[in-house]
Amino acid sequence: MLTLHDYPGSANCFKVRMLLSQLGRPYERVHVDIFAGDSQTDAYLALNPAGRTPLLVTEAGDPIPESGAILLYLAEGTPFLPDDPVDRAHVHAWMFFEQNLLEPNVGTARFWRLTGRDAERPEAFARHY
Ligand SMILES: N[C@@H](CCC(=O)N[C@@H](CS)C(=O)NCC(=O)O)C(=O)O
Asked: Does 82 have pLDDT greater than 80?
């Protein structure tokens, strides 16, 4: 079975959970408490040297870090990743846009709000361009 190493407040993890749900793929969810250091243990860093969530481990035991790489892996062979090169480029364009503009702004603010740390991070809620 697929295993998703996941932090609930993470927008990057949320994207992966959404696609798994859309695809109806069963998976085991492992809660990584990043504020308790779970993502910095030797065992976790052996799977993802960047020490970040999400991390997907395939049925064959291969670890895949980075939400975009995970989404592309899961979407392969499904209507979420079309074969036509232009259609596929549009999927990639949206994914780059999301990581460059949405994630650092909306995703980050969501993260600090959901983790109850928003008062410590006013810069995350300042106007961004
Ligand atoms: N580009 C990465 C970003 C991953 C990332 O920044 N994850 C955050 C949660 S949203 C994390 O695990 N932070 C823990 C830390 O920085 O120690 C992705 O899309 O997966």
From this structure: yes
